[in-house]
Amino acid sequence: MTSSSSIYQNIPQPLRVGIVGSGFVARLRAEILSQDSRIALTAIAGTPEKAGAIAQDLAIPHIYQYWSELVMRPDLDLVVICNVNRDHGTVVGQALRSGKHVIVEYPLSFHLAEAEELVNLAKQQNLLLHVEHIELLGGVHQLVVEHLAKIGNPFYARYSTKSPQHHVPDKWTYKPDLFGFPLTAAVSRLNRVIVLFGKVKAVTCQLRYSGDRLPHHFTSCICNAQLQFENGVLADVSYSKGENFWQPERIMELQGSEGAIIFSGDKGKLISAAGEMELDAGSTRGLFKKDTENVLSHLFDGTPLYTNHDSILHALAVANAAEKSALSNQTVML
Q1: Measured distance CA(60)–CA(44) in Å, rounded
Q2: Which residue, 89, 238, 271, 321, is most buried by CB atoms nearer than 10 A?
Q3: In the 8-state DSSP scheme, what is residue 5?
Q4: Quick check: helix, strand or coil at residue 246?
Q5: Are the C-beta atoms of 88 and 105 separated by less than 8 Å?
Q6: How far is the C-alpha of 273 from the C-alpha of 141, rounded, in Å?
C-alpha cells in the first residue's frame, strides 16, 4: 500500500525503519515509532548490549554493531540517526546515497560545507532529510512567537542554559572530538534566535574547558557567543555544563521598544507599560513524539515540516563562525 498525497515517490505502508544509536534518544524514538501501525521497526545498530535490549523490548528483528551494515539494507525506507554527534554527517550521507529517507538529531554535521552537500543530495534524490529541533515545538518558543509583536521592535535577546553535573560521566557528551564544539553540538540554541530574528552578520565567541584529561575529556565547559543580526538585534547565547556549575538555568529573554518577554525554565512573563502577564509554557515532555508525528505526517500526507533547511544551515554557519572566533579571539563576519 502506498500513500497517495505524499510529495515523495512510493512511500510504502508499513514504512520500514532502521535506528542508528542505542542510547536514551534512540530508545525513545524506537518506542514512539513502535506505537504507529504504519511503521515496521526492522533493524537497530549500536552498542551490542544496549541495542539488543531495545530490540528485545520492541521486537526489532535485526541487530547490528556497525551502522554501515544497517544503512546498506535494501529493505529499509527510513533511517533514524541518534548516535554520537561526530558521525551524523557520515551516516546521513551513506543513508541518502542508499536511497533512504533520513531523520537525524542535531547537529546535521560539524561542518557547514558537508551539511550543504547533504541538503543538496536529499533534494536531488527527492528524499526526506529532517533535522530534529524539538525546542521549536516547545511551549517557550511557541509563546515567544505568539507574543513577539507585543514587545515592539526587538533590541536584545539572551538565551542561556547551565547544566550542573556532579560527577561528570565518562560519556561521549564530555569528549570534544565526539561531542563537537559546544555551540555546534547545541546548535538548537542558535537556531531558536535565528528563527526569530533572521540572518546573523557577525559573531564573537569565548570558550573555556576545564578538566584533568583535556583535550580528550572535559569536566566543565562554558561557551558564550555574541551575535549581531542584520536587523540590528544583539543576542547573547550561552551554553554551560559540568562540575563547575552549581545551579541549573534556562533563561530566554527578549527586550524591545514596547516591552519584554522573559522566561526562566517554563515560567515566563510579558512585561509592558500596561503591566505584566504571566506566561506558562507547560511541560517539555512529549516533544519527540510531536516531532515524530510531524515527520510521519509529512512523509505520508505531504503536510509541512516545522523546520526548514535554510535556518538549519544558517545556524550551522553561525556555529562554525563562533568556533573560528573562539580559536582566533576575533569577531568573525558572515
Answers
A1: 7
A2: 321
A3: S
A4: coil
A5: yes
A6: 23
